[in-house]
Write a structure and sequence with these properties.
Shape: globular
CATH class of the largest domain: Alpha Beta
Radius of gyration: 20 Å
Number of strands: 13
CATH superfamily of the largest domain: Survival protein SurE-like phosphatase/nucleotidase
Order of helices and strands: EHEEEHEHEHEEHEEEHEHE
Strand content: 25-35%
CATH topology of the largest domain: Stationary-phase Survival Protein Sure Homolog, Chain: A
Strand order of the largest sheet: 3-4-2-1-5-6-9-13-10
C-alpha cells in the first residue's frame, strides 16, 4: 500500500510526523506538504504559477518534500510528480485544530483530501481538537507551550487505515473526515454526520477596545473609510446528537464522518 501524506499546517508541523508514524508500519509513505502554514485556504490552486519543490528532513530524519503552495497544490505535486505511481490513499493531517460541520469547505486539511478524491484517490482528513483547558501547559521556566498528544489520534488513524487496506473504502464513500479530541472520555469511534456549522462569525473593527489585544491594532478615535476590520469567530455551542460536533464536544469521543464529494441534491423532482 502506498500513501501520500500532506497537511495545511506545513511540512514541519508535529502533526504530519505523527500521521507518518501512525501508518508507516503498514504502508510505504511519502510526505509532500506546504512549506508554511496554509490554514483555512480551502481548495485554492496555484494554476500556471511556478512552485518551489524542496527536499527536507522531518524531525525523525526521514525524507519529505515542501511545496511553496497550498495543500491542494501539495497533493497534486506529490501525486503527479514526486511519487512514481498514484498512491492508494491520501492522508491529510494530523491537523492541529478542529474540522467539523459544513464549514469544512474552508479547511485546507479537508480540501487537500477533496483534491485527492478529484484525482481518483480515496482520502482521510484527520484533525486533533486541542482543548485549551488541558493542552496548554507551563515548563519549568514558566513558559507556556501546547502539549500535542497525538496518542489516541495515531491509534484511531492506524486502525482505520488498516481496515481500509484489508477491506477497501465502503461503497459510496469518497473520503473520511476524522476528528479526535485531546480531552477524550471515550476511545470508541462514532460514525457521524456533518453539523450545520462550526463557527459563529462576526466582523470587528479597530474601534473596539475590548478586542484590541487579539486584533493587535492601534485604536482610532475617528472612523475613516480605510479602517481595519477583522472577521472573528466563536465555536457554536449546540449540536444535534448524530453530528460530529456532538461526538467531539459533548460525548468527547472520536468522530468519523463519511463523505461523498458529489454535492448534487436528488430531492428536486417537479420543482420546475
Amino acid at each position: 500500500m502506498n500513501i501520500l501524506i500532506s497537511n495545511d499546517d506545513g511540512v514541519f508541523a508535529p502533526g504530519i510526523l505523527a500521521a507518518k508514524q501512525a501508518v508507516e508500519d503498514i504502508a510505504n509513505v511519502v510526505v509532500v506538504a506546504p512549506d508554511e502554514n496554509n490554514s483555512s485556504v480551502g481548495r485554492r490552486l496555484s494554476l500556471f504559477k511556478h512552485l518551489k519543490l524542496t527536499s527536507c528532513e522531518l524531525e525523525d530524519g526521514t525524507l519529505a518534500y515542501s511545496v511553496s503552495g497550498s495543500p491542494a497544490d501539495a497533493v497534486i505535486v506529490g501525486t503527479d510528480y514526486v511519487m512514481d505511481e498514484k498512491p492508494d490513499l491520501v492522508i491529510s493531517g494530523i491537523n492541529q485544530g478542529v474540522n467539523i460541520s459544513c464549514d469544512i469547505t474552508s479547511s485546507g486539511t479537508v480540501c487537500a483530501a477533496l483534491e485527492a478524491v478529484s484525482m481518483g484517490i480515496p482520502a482521510i482528513a484527520v484533525s486533533l481538537f486541542i482543548d485549551p483547558k488541558s493542552a496548554y501547559k507551563q515548563d519549568e521556566n514558566g513558559e507556556w507551550y501546547v502539549d500535542y498528544d497525538f496518542t489516541l489520534t495515531k491509534k484511531v488513524l492506524h486502525d482505520l487505515v488498516l481496515k481500509i487496506k484489508n477491506e477497501g473504502f465502503p461503497q459510496g464513500v469518497d473520503l473520511f473526515n476524522l476528528n479526535v479530541p485531546s480531552n477524550y472520555e471515550s476511545e470508541e469511534v462514532k460514525i457521524t454526520e456533518l453539523s450545520h456549522k462550526m463557527l459563529d462569525k462576526k466582523v470587528i473593527d479597530n474601534t473596539d477596545s475590548a478586542k484590541s489585544e487579539i486584533f493587535n491594532y492601534h485604536l482610532k478615535e475617528n472612523q475613516e473609510s480605510d479602517d481595519l476590520v477583522m472577521i472573528a469567530s466563536d465555536l457554536v455551542s449546540e449540536y444535534e446528537d448524530t453530528s460530529d460536533g456532538y461526538a467531539l464536544f459533548v460525548e468527547k469521543r472520536p468522530s468519523l464522518t463519511p463523505l461523498n464529494v458529489n454535492m448534487t441534491s436528488k430531492n428536486l423532482k417537479d420543482w420546475l
